[in-house]
Amino acid sequence: MRVEEAGEFGIIARLRAMLEGEREGLVRGIGDDTAVIRDGAGGLWAYTADAVVEGVHFDPAYTPWHSLGYKALAVNVSDLASMGGGAPSFALVVLGLRGDAEVEALEEVYRGLVDCGEEFGCAVVGGDIVRSPASLFISVSLVGSIPGERYLTRDAARPGQAVLVTGTLGDSYLGLRWLMGGGSDSNVCARRHLYPRPRVGEGGKALEMGATSAIDVSDGLLRDLGHICEESGVGAEVFIEEVPISGDAEATALELGEDARRAALFGGEDYELILVADADRAPSLRDGLGLSVVGRITEGNEVRVLDAAGKRLDTDRVGYEHFKEG
Amino acid sequence: MRVEEAGEFGIIARLRAMLEGEREGLVRGIGDDTAVIRDGAGGLWAYTADAVVEGVHFDPAYTPWHSLGYKALAVNVSDLASMGGGAPSFALVVLGLRGDAEVEALEEVYRGLVDCGEEFGCAVVGGDIVRSPASLFISVSLVGSIPGERYLTRDAARPGQAVLVTGTLGDSYLGLRWLMGGGSDSNVCARRHLYPRPRVGEGGKALEMGATSAIDVSDGLLRDLGHICEESGVGAEVFIEEVPISGDAEATALELGEDARRAALFGGEDYELILVADADRAPSLRDGLGLSVVGRITEGNEVRVLDAAGKRLDTDRVGYEHFKEG
């Protein structure tokens, strides 16, 4: 079977079985935002890797080199945040370069990496540069400390718990549409698309305040909440009226003729956190960290969207899967 | 300036300056086989990453998928070995796949990764799968424990010290030539090319026995010894008669019409270790670990090759640099 037929998640399921099993020092393997390993002295580290490929994950036509480097690191820091981890962290960067790439562009990519690292307590400590004949890629790995013995997982959601999110959703998708339409990167949504801000502080604090599960929004709210549901063996309801949408998203959507609410449900790459916590903890998390309560965990295995009257809405589209177009 | 004009080492020098500086927990940054980081409890970890790209680092025509996975991990384990580190270690694998790749091939790649990990105490704990339109790539990162407070570096070589190597050299290059000529992978040199065995045990033991510097042979003996010289600000002499060459390399070279000695000096990808130690430690290292004493560190900044009579030989070719052909 070809990769394009099996799809990303089909492949991951097949490979996952090969990587499972207990190993010395391995606390948590495949199936979450990061692996968790234990050092010789008993401390926990989150360990994660991600790559972006030209023509698949970004288009140089509307991705400044500096942003490309910044974001390549930010998405890994975001994975660390979704485990409740934080600084210090360390990153290695493997750059796959076409021979005709400009060295100045490359330096801008590195400047973006270093700038992101400085903001979020991550030292870029080295890596590798290789030749890639057809398309540039950046593969980043990150190892970061997890304080204490607990961390946030995808598989700890239980029926009755509340679903919360940081910040606002849909901005990044609308910013991307804005840029693709030739809009300037001074648009706030475009900035959010190019320079996502991983929620490192919120992840760690939410863990302290009793959140049990988390994931970062890379594939879209419904899709990523679906990952939590799948790993936890539960379903979820999303209250569409409660999904936080920024004024900038509303304005940008209006100009683009897009639906900001749809962007907030399906749009990816916001790198906000979806957090799950017991219902009685939700108010303090909401007020203490400025989160929005957007839904609750249910029995079953579906992610359903409810309107203000509690009526189920028909969501006819699913998120973006990398190997299957559209 | 374009990447192909600047060359790999030119680019690395430019980027290196951007990544230097002290950071919390960072013991050793860019400029060695691995970065070294300190965990919260004071323990040291080696952290490294490498990538292989189809058409640049391997040709699927003579690289079995299983070998591709095995080797992609082995080269990272070898970097760990060259710091004197060992098990346990943990690896993340980012696969960049064409949509027309076969899932079965992919599973073979993973099987190779897992098999290598099991042999060398490395748990493959996850990673990412992304689409790569034109060429397959595998980007592996590895974090592994360093016992104690010391590790082997590239910059600790001093004039008068001895240069030693593990195993034999040139086999991998000759094995590659063999495969490229249509030869079967049952040839011992071909096996060594496809399944390099990182010297994890030897690295750790050499560190215990007083070795100070090390590097693994990825670019060839002269080139990699040159990296040690550059980082240490020294030169070196290599005694050509002492460079260890296997009977299989001699036989394969004969069949191919190649020069086994030249292969041993210039051939890459043996993943043996070059070790530097005080001259009075050399005999015990040689006898205890089965190493060969192949040269000595000198003043200056050149790597010179001497014949049995101590006469300098003319080496008219340098190793392979990725961005400059030939």
Offer a quick outline of the entry:
Two copies of one chain form a homodimer. Chain A is of the alpha+beta class and 326 residues long. Chain A has helices at 3-19, 65-81, 103-119, 171-180, 188-194, 200-208, 221-232, 247-256, 260-266, 282-289, and strands at 26-28, 35-38, 44-53, 89-97, 122-131, 137-146, 162-165, 213-216, 235-239, 273-277, 292-298, 303-306, 312-313.
In CATH, the homologous superfamily of the largest domain in chain A goes by the name PurM-like C-terminal domain
Largest contact between protein chains? A-B, 79 and 79 residues
Please tally the helical runs of chain A, counting DSSP H or I stretches of 4 or more residues: 10
Instruction: State the CATH architecture of the largest domain in chain A.
Output: Alpha-Beta Complex
The shape of chain A is: globular
Can you list the strand order of the major beta sheet of chain A? 8-10-7-11-9-12-13
Q: Which segments of chain A are poorly predicted (pLDDT under 50) over 5 or more consecutive residues?
A: 317-326
Give the beta-strand count of chain A: 13
How far apart the termini of chain A lie comes to: 20 Å
State the CATH class of the largest domain in chain A: Alpha Beta
- Helix fraction bin of chain A: 25-40%
- The share of residues in extended strands of chain A comes to 15-25%
The averaged pLDDT of chain A comes out at 90
Largest sheet of chain A: 7 strands, mixed
Number of domains of chain A: 2
What are the secondary-structure elements of chain A, in order, as H or E? HEEEHEHEEEHHHEHEHHEHEEE
Question: How large, in whole angstroms, is the Cα Rg of chain A?
Answer: 19 Å
